[in-house]
Amino acid sequence: MNTIVTITVVASSERTAEDAIEDAFLTIGDIEKRADFYSPESEITSINKSAGVSDVKVSPDILSLIGKALSVSEKTEGAFDITIGPVTLLYDFHTKQKPEYDALRKTLPLVNYRNVVINKNDSTVYLRKPGMMIDPGGISKGYAADRATDVLKHHGISSGIVAIAGDIRAFGLKPDGRPWKIGIRNSRATGTEDDIMATMELTDAAVSTSGDYERFFISDGIRYHHVLSPMTGRPAGMCRSVTVIAPEGYLADSFSTGIFILGPEKGLRILETSGYGGVIVDNQGKVRITPGLRGKIEFQRNP
User: Fold this and answer.
1) Which of 9, 125, 137, 238 is 20 to 30 A from 18 in CA distance terms?
2) What's the 3-state SS for the chain?
């Protein structure tokens, strides 16, 4: 998934662990192949090419992933929107390319998750407008971590952790009987010594962080990063980072993106209403956390 993936398990034997981990990696690879926004051979590309023309039959994983994404869009008031694809293509963070106003103005009307039609009976997906594009980058890693966890459990693994970059799904306890320990990255780290802002214990839950430091460039003193607002087409500017703790990876992954775009005040309200935990660092570096996490996070230093 264009990033580092690590899987750790607690098992009764090395053979059991190896078989389980191998199947989990195969599952992640299969999802990557089907959900790759940039691959000409993926199911997502097939959907995008048929926008406004015809529906496309898809695999159970892609149908499930898109259905879950649309549900999160509703819960985040459209801040998370997988139809951001046409806007995504206007940016290139390697060459420091950003769109002009006219390009954004023409592209933004194509971004609307309500124009995605799913037929569960036929396992098809249809985009109502020509030019629409699904970009599942804000949910696919968390979803893949969930599916990998399912595979591990199917092999009889009772404890483990799947980490796809900043998307982490943990279950069970470590051999010493304690929960897994997770670090939250400092959004303005200048070196390895101050890379971790805080730590927390995690079990039978998922955590994901969205930040303006992952893919970005500075132009004329402005930070352009990859967390793009569906409303403006511009990088969201009210947060530096958002970490969400939720029961499943796809929820933590997509909500961290949506909350980043909504900003601290509205974001905290939605997290509390949804029953998820969150650590939000706003654009001034102020840290806000949901009430349920107070006393459960150990801060190493200021962000």
Assistant:
1) 137
2) CCCCEEEEEECCCHHHHHHHHHHHHHHHHHHHHHHCCCCCCCHHHHHHHCCCCCCEECCHHHHHHHHHHHHHHHHCCCCCCHHHHHHHCCCECCCCECCCHHHHHHHHHHCCHHHEEEECCCCEEEECCCCCCCCHHHCHHHHHHHHHHHHHHHCCCCEEEEEECCEEEEECCCCCCCCEEEEEECCCCCCHHHCEEEEEEECCEEEEEEECCCCEEEECCEEEECCECCCCCCECCCEEEEEEEECCHHHHHHHHHHHHHHCHHHHHHHHHHHCCEEEEEECCCCEEECHHHCCCEEECCCC
- Tell me the per-residue pLDDT of 79-119, one tens digit each, with 9 for 90 and over: 999 999 999 999 998 898 999 999 999 999 999 999 999 99
pTM of the model: 0.94
CATH code assigned to 140-299: 3.10.520.10
**Domain 43-136: assigned CATH number:** 1.10.3980.10
